[in-house]
Amino acid sequence: MSQGVTKLIHKYLRHDKKFPHVWCPGCGNGIVLGALIRAIDRIGLEKDEIVLASGIGCSGRMPVYVDFNTLHTTHGRALTFATGIKLAKPSLTVIAIMGDGDATAIGGNHFIHAARRNLNLTAIIINNQIYGMTGGQSSPTTPYGSYATTAPYGLIEHAFSIAELAVTAGAPFVARGTVYHVETLEDLVKKAILKRGFAVVEVISNCHVQYGRRNNMGDPVTMMKWMRDHAIRVEKASSMSIDDMEGKFTIGVLADVEKPIYTEEYQKIREGAIKGRPTGGPGHG
Amino acid sequence: MNNGAVLTGEHFLNGDVACAEGALAAGCNFFAGYPITPATEVAERMSRRLPKTGGIYIQMEDEIASMAAILGASWGGAKAMTSTSGPGFSLMMENIGLGMMTETPCVLVNIMRAGPSTGLPTLVGQADVMQARWGSHGDYGVIAISPASVQEMFDLTIEAFNLSEQYRQPVFILSDEVVGHMYEKLVIPPAERIHRIERRKPEKRPDEYVPFMGEEDLVPPMACAGEGYRVHVTGLTHDEMGYPHMFHTTQERLVRRLVDKIRLNADKIIRLESDFMEDAKVVVIAYGCVSRSAREAVERARSKGLKVGMLRLITVWPFPTKKLRELAGRVETFIIPEINYGQVAYEVERCAGDRAEIVQVGIMGGTVHSPEDIYDVIEEFAQ
């Protein structure tokens, strides 16, 4: 292991307390964690300033491994806790880490409303297209026709595209990466954290154990090759035909616009309320 | 506190608004909620008042999110509250459990209406008493307070904040539509006369701090996010360091402490109002809006020489088991009027065993017992 990696591990991980981790060998979650830590290190944030909040599932276990302020909450709710903590202490950098089932099934409503509301939060969604921790049940991003323990005859539902959903719901920054394109991923996470506003990074990841094995991709290398062969950079995709894009997905920055941020808008309300309408009696308050 | 949070003076307000003012006086600086009858006025008042006092109001997408947001805010160092009624209370159960497991101080106001389900949205009920005690899965201790007047909506909301900060857990205001919507005189004292308790902070350095180690009263001091302690907070069974530990021995230590911190401190938490008890053969037990009719009925019975006492539960949970067991030895009959089919009555039965007769006077919701309803039952049993 290189000295640089060891230094990062010692600086950011609860390396002497909570390891070994719970993830399967070859799991993409570690790659996402690595990208997140390198992005944070490049930005130069203090550990005390960072909150990492998660929901439930394999992704939900990430916070316990990092030496930040960490919250491992209920299934699908990471963004709602993140909302509370960010509003209570806006100086903190608050990042929510979620899975595909976590963010778009049980937490789907919170996800679209967080995108609409536009707090200065970062949401990283690891999309491995399956419920991994519970053993391979179909999720809202499991592809049509795939097999899962709860879709033994093939899935007849259609998958969400998480990044596109976030754009439609109003998130001012949306990106998609994969655990194969590691440098790009690190860059996208860094951009998302630095973005002023609600920033989403969807990360296509591999669950070869629970998804791959049932769908002819039973090892991490096969799944990564699939990512390599199916991911098209946004810039290139814009010049490709719909037919050429069939079965492919884009990676890169899908949206980056400016929108008023909730906390700043609220501060204006506060100032107006204090100046314009002095505290009177109840009923006029 | 000179930020305008305490509206010292005499007012004429409804219970919901008094509750909001009590919260502000207690130092509440964060409110997340979702509209629901008959609790909406609490949220509306907070949305007007919090920006002026430097606090935060946010309307969330549902009650699940509201409960979660106040837990998050509490870990960000805020004194946080939400308000709801039955259907929202049901949705909040999930994150109430997380609040109990992670020992997060906050206040949840339930202005009870009649259920089940949508029930009677605009009319009174008291059928969430057992849900408040047992609603979220798993074992934990509960504090629930039941105000009976507009003044108490103010005073006891402050008390609820103090208890939540002291015992580090969500505390419930279990009010009802009648108390929430009725208008009465409210006296708000000067700010310096309002007693506020704040969560204990760790005195140890971060490398020596054990975040989930209870002190003498079984409550751990709380380090919030950004205070240099970098605590891990999880709904999983966790050891004293806060790290997940999937063993029955850790579960045993943790859950016993969560229950015991309320159970063993119950005498300090419980508040009762007890009248005419010295020679009482019959005792009426009531809480919330019904206690007002009950008091009228008991006073009328006393004036006619009937040996009847009145016990008002100000805290519904923890239940005054010790007091009830002691009374059951000398009281012949307990009369329990409540707007449900026997919830507190069930607890009284548990405490009294077969040593006293239990008379349940239930209304299924939508209206309050009249004093006559209760007086007639007293007369029947106290002759």
How is this structure best described in words?
The complex is a heterodimer of chains A (285) and B (383). With 285 residues, chain A is an alpha/beta fold. Chain A has a single domain, classed as Thiamin diphosphate (ThDP)-binding fold, Pyr/PP domains (Rossmann fold). In chain A, 39% of the residues lie in helices and 16% in strands. In chain A, strands 2-1-3-4-6-5-8-7 form an eight-stranded mixed sheet, sandwiched between helices. In chain A, strand 5, helix 8 (182-194) and strand 6 (199-204) form a beta-alpha-beta unit. Chain A is globular and about 65 Å long. The termini of chain A are far apart. The model of chain A is unreliable at 278-285 (pLDDT under 50). With 383 residues, chain B is α/β, with parallel strands linked by helices. Chain B has two domains: 3-193, Thiamin diphosphate (ThDP)-binding fold, Pyr/PP domains (Rossmann fold, 3-Layer(aba) Sandwich); 272-382, Rossmann fold. Chain B is 37% helix and 21% strand. Chain B has 13 helices and 16 strands. Chain B has helices spanning 15-25, 40-49, 63-75, 86-101, 129-134, 150-167, 177-181, 248-263, 266-269, 290-303, 321-328, 344-352, 371-382, and strands spanning 9-14, 30-33, 56-59, 80-84, 106-114, 120-124, 144-145, 170-176, 183-188, 232-234, 272-275, 282-286, 308-313, 315-317, 333-338, 357-362. In chain B, strands 2, 3, 4, 5, 6, 7, 8 and 14 form an eight-stranded mixed sheet that branches. Chain B has a five-stranded mixed sheet with strand order 11-13-12-15-16, sandwiched between helices. A two-stranded antiparallel ribbon of chain B has the order 1-9.
